[in-house]
Automatic annotation (TrEMBL):
It is a multi-pass membrane protein. GO terms for molecular function: monoatomic cation transmembrane transporter activity. This is SLC13 family permease. SUPFAM superfamilies: TrkA C-terminal domain-like. InterPro entries: Cit_transptr-like_dom, DASS-Related_Transporters, Na/sul_symport_CS, RCK_C, RCK_C_sf. GO terms for cellular component: plasma membrane. Residues 217-305, 312-396 form the RCK C-terminal domain.
């Protein structure tokens, strides 16, 4: 073993450990790889940066934008409404339709995004059918993962393997190359989940159903807000006329959130969004939520404010202008690891955080200072306009259904036909092969912007830069393993272990290696590392590499076994009231089923 190979393997081992502990973030680790490999002399700077010019990396970024356009135009919400109407009161019909719809949408947009959109839909149907959300959440996540097996552009690993084949001089995959096998796995998955959902702890214990369209009264009761809200008027003698709101330090010193400001206007009062730089006026009425116990009489005397009566408690008389909504922290979004104060939530989103639910329980500590975690559910309050705007920020939060006090609208719903037409055009161009896939994606993004299905700011915000940098950073790693003989060593070890086995057993071995690796690192990084190994095994056996590439792609998406093997699984864990072993109990048998189906069908679809 050469010194260069030893250095690359040591670096790979360190990266895998960092991926597992997720410190630092995976994209930071990938950037470290780009820096360290050229410094070690194993590859050149140009080779280390080749991932940023890979067409598939660009295409993945474009697909994030197209997915955002589908959300903003209401395509996904319309599909959800259709699902609710068609399912009726049949739980089995609901599971079948839910998995079909989610997998179908997941074939052209991010599976994490699709599952995030359909969590509120599934919760609402669970409430109407009076069943536990645990019966629906895992079928939802499994369908999202299977959606990645349906088309070439469904998930990054598919495009990574396609790029690896083309780099070796082979034809690569067509848009629908994955579809026959993916549909077969989807059929088995639907049948399996119809039976397996009954094994789930969340389904068996009749756990509490979390309704999607609970009214504001439900939020007040659940988060114990009844005695926390007050209407306070600024008096003439308090010396605050013209003073900025942030200069009062209400949150830091008193645990007070200003939800809204009532100000006298020409035709009555108007409700204003309480921005940090707002200048207060005498006579302004502040709607204040106290996250900690306060003696309101003493507070008003200290500030020189007047306590006003409220009808019905907690700002009910202002519900025509302001309200509340629950949002879930999305995977790897900026708020994770920061407190509400550090995040500057009100300045950034125009809303105040008034409640926190973690693992199904309402948090009762110092809310504003608590570090947020993935899967946390925040109750936010403020003007309906800001709440509607938050609904379109799918990269940071997942809105768990708007309350019935506000109409559920998408920011660009009138552009829905245009979005569907552009999506259809992109698919036709990719299937027909008239232009390269990345050009078809670029054309679709430009048309989405031209038809105002997505704005420029939303397009850039929708791109999951961490995933792109991770892929771009791991591509030179695979090249370094190839040039130093690491791939050859891995192939020799694998063939030695599988000595005398038939080709189907070798395909099964590649599947197992890929699936086990994806338990510890992302499926995209797994695909990048396993691609050269799988292709080298095929070359050694003097058979077509296409079946081996297909097996790696399918295995990389088969992240069913644990709640942390995919962000999709992590998202549904809280709403489904699942435990770690629920995924093991249901996911391991299904992964074995996918293994058997893949090994039997792939050589038939793609002859060796």
């Amino acid at each position: 073993m050469s010194w260069d190979l030893l250095m690359v393997l040591m670096l790979l081992g360190v990266c895998m450990v960092l991926f597992v502990v997720n410190k630092p973030r995976m994209d930071v680790v990938a950037l470290m790889v780009i820096v360290l490999l050229p410094l070690s002399g194993v590859i050149s700077v140009q080779e280390a940066l080749v991932g940023f010019s890979d067409p598939n990396v660009i295409l993945i970024a474009l697909l994030f934008v197209i997915g955002e356009a589908l959300v903003r135009t209401g395509v996904t919400f319309e599909v959800g409404d259709w699902l609710v109407r068609r399912a009726g009161k049949s739980e089995m019909k609901l599971v079948v339709l839910l998995m079909l719809v989610v997998a179908g949408l997941g074939s052209v947009m991010s599976s994490t995004g699709v599952v995030g959109i359909f969590i509120p839909v599934a919760l609402g149907v669970a409430r109407r059918l009076k069943v536990s959300p645990g019966r629906l959440m895992m079928p939802l996540s499994f369908a999202g993962l299977i959606g990645g097996m349906l088309t070439l552009v469904a998930t990054p690993p598919n495009m990574v393997l396609d790029g690896a084949l083309r780099q070796e001089g082979f034809e690569g995959f067509a848009f629908f190359s994955f579809t026959p096998l993916g549909l077969l796995i989807l059929a088995f998955g639907i049948g399996y989940m119809v039976v397996a959902q009954r094994w789930l702890k969340g389904a068996a214990d009749g756990g509490a159903v979390v309704p999607v369209r609970r009214g504001l009264s439900h939020f007040i009761k659940e988060y114990r807000l009844e005695n926390r809200g007050f209407r306070l008027r600024i008096g003439a003698g308090c010396g605050l006329d013209g003073k900025r709101l942030d200069a009062l330090n209400l949150r830091r010193e008193h645990g007070a959130n200003v939800v809204a400001v009532e100000r006298a206007g020409r035709f009555g009062h108007v409700l204003l969004n309480p921005r940090a730089g707002m200048e207060l006026r005498v006579g302004d009425v502040l709607l204040v939520d106290f996250s900690q116990e306060v003696k309101i009489g003493g507070f008003c005397e200290e500030m020189g404010w007047e306590l006003l009566p409220m009808k019905g408690g907690y700002f009910r008389e202002s519900w025509n202008e302001a309200g509340m909504v629950e949002v879930m922290i999305a995977p790897e979004s900026p708020p994770i690891g920061k407190s509400v104060q550090e995040q500057g939530f009100r300045s950034r989103y125009g809303l105040s955080v008034v409640g926190l639910r973690r693992q199904g329980k309402v948090f009762e500590g110092q809310l504003l200072e608590e570090k947020l975690k993935m899967g946390d559910v925040l109750l936010v309050a403020g003007p309906w306009k800001s709440i509607r705007q938050l609904q379109g920020m799918a990269g940071d939060f997942i809105v768990l259904g708007l309350p019935p006090e506000v109409e559920d609208v998408a920011p660009a719903r009138d552009r829905l036909p245009h979005a569907l037409g552009v999506l259809a055009l992109m698919v036709v161009l990719m299937v027909g092969g008239w232009v390269p896939n990345v050009i078809a994606g670029l054309m679709a993004c430009l048309l989405m912007g031209l038809f105002r299905c997505v704005d420029l700011a939303g397009a850039y915000k929708s791109i999951h830069w961490q995933s792109l940098i991770l892929i771009a950073g791991m591509i030179p790693f695979a090249q370094a393993l190839e040039s130093t003989g690491g791939v050859g060593l891995a192939v020799e070890g694998f063939l030695g272990l599988m000595e005398g086995a038939g080709v189907r057993w070798l395909l099964g071995g590649v599947f197992v290696m890929t699936a086990l690796t994806s338990l510890f690192i992302s499926n995209t990084a797994t695909a990048v590392l396993m691609a050269p190994i799988a292709l080298s095994v095929a070359k050694h056996l003097e058979v077509s590499p296409v079946p081996f590439a297909m097996v790696v792609a399918i295995a990389a998406s088969a992240a069913f076994m644990t709640p942390v093997s995919s962000p999709v699984n992590t998202l549904v864990m809280g709403p489904g009231n699942y435990r770690f072993m629920d995924f093991v109990k249901v996911g391991v048998p299904f992964t074995l089923l996918v293994l058997v189906v893949t090994v039997l069908v792939v050589p038939w679809l793609f002859p060796l």
